[in-house]
Amino acid sequence: MLKVEWQIFGLFMMLKKKITAALMEWHNTQNNREMPWKGEKDPYKIWLSEVILQQTRVEQGRTYYENFTHKYPTIQHLAADKDENVFKLWEGLGYYNRCKNLLFTARFVTNELKGRFPDTYADIVALKGVGPYTAAAIASFAYNEPYAVVDGNVFRVLSRVFNIDTPTDSTEGKQLFTDLANEVLDKKQPGAFNQAIMDFGATICKPMAPACAVCPLQKLCEARQHGRVSMLPVKNKVLQKKTRWLTWFKLQAEGKTLVHKRSSRDIWENLHEFYLVEATEKTTWTRDLVTQWCWNQLDVKKAEVISISGVLSQQLTHQTIKAQFIEVQLPHIPPSLTEYDWLSTKEIDQLAFPRLINLWLDPKKRDSLLF
DNA sequence: AACGCGGGGCG
DNA sequence: CGCCCAGCGTT
């Protein structure tokens, strides 16, 4: 290797050491972020908190963590409950596949591993719903294994401090930042370091309006020196948004309501809904059209249209939902719909529904979503 | 390698 | 309105 390359290499090694030290110093003297799972040593609770926090803000996840740990103090409690109850507790948190995998893993650990949570990174990352981030978090927090977490905070902090514009959502970027994070990791106290860099990213090196003026890494930060802080990190994905037109028919007969559990590979998997009709564009529902639709689609001659809502709008990350709700009273449960569940209001209260449906069900909140 | 998956908060 | 959040599983 050329002499000049050795010099650059040496400078890089020095920079890394300084950054590790500066982050730990900040953590030990100024980090006052408090969270219910901080300092937790029970791998079950660490795992639970990390799954809840995947792609989810700490403030949004906090109450869910408290509700779950209160209702399920151990992984055995969680494994033993009915699916519907667990989904009800997860209701509103989003990314419902997490809940499905949470239950699967709880039962796997309870039944196949005799209740012993795995205690090495390799075994932890093999669990369903646990990827590289979550495994590193559990391994470092619970067992002090030297694995660096790489989450949105870490991508941001490292891309700025080292002024790296490799896209964080590329395969190359993930590998590069993972390697870098493991080099910066304080091997003697991996758990504390991982906590430090994430808290630092969340409170100082924030996505918008980072607190560079009071940042203890200010002089070390390459992006700061080059005036590129606001340009980092770089992502190259442009997500396509599509609009969907959904009409839910709340069909009532014999004191019960038709309920359907969503199961296809689509949003709100495993949550419940009413009878859904999806169209490629806005449908102008009139009482006559609804009556005619009941006749044609449900083979129901006498249908009483109770109400037709306005168009409610909900913005998801990747979809815009335009929804209408139509309440229909039928004289009896039609033979064409006996395959569906017909439930009482009390039974429906036990089930998890998408946010949008719950908001419509609450008359006080309906108007806030009117398009 | 690319895509799909919720809901909320912020500028 | 667009961006981001203690990411992961599927194809």
From TrEMBL:
Organism: Filimonas lacunae
A Pfam family of this chain: HhH-GPD
Keywords, alphabetical: 4Fe-4S, DNA damage, DNA repair, Glycosidase, Hydrolase, Iron, Iron-sulfur, Metal-binding
Essential cofactor(s): [4Fe-4S] cluster
Biological role: Adenine glycosylase active on G-A mispairs. MutY also corrects error-prone DNA synthesis past GO lesions which are due to the oxidatively damaged form of guanine: 7,8-dihydro-8-oxoguanine (8-oxo-dGTP).
BP term (GO), one: base-excision repair
Protein name per UniProt: Adenine DNA glycosylase
E.C. no: 3.2.2.31
EC class (word): hydrolase
The HhH-GPD domain, residue ranges: 52-203
Recorded family membership: Belongs to the Nth/MutY family.
One Gene Ontology term of the molecular function aspect: metal ion binding
Catalytically driven reaction(s): Hydrolyzes free adenine bases from 7,8-dihydro-8-oxoguanine:adenine mismatched double-stranded DNA, leaving an apurinic site
InterPro entries the UniProt entry points to: A/G_AdeGlyc_MutY, DNA_glycosylase, HhH-GPD_domain, HhH_base_excis_C, HhH_motif, MIG/MutY, MutY_C, NUDIX_hydrolase-like_dom_sf
Cofactor binding remark: Binds 1 [4Fe-4S] cluster.
SMART domains linked to this entry: ENDO3c
Domain of life: Bacteria
Keyword Oxidoreductase: no
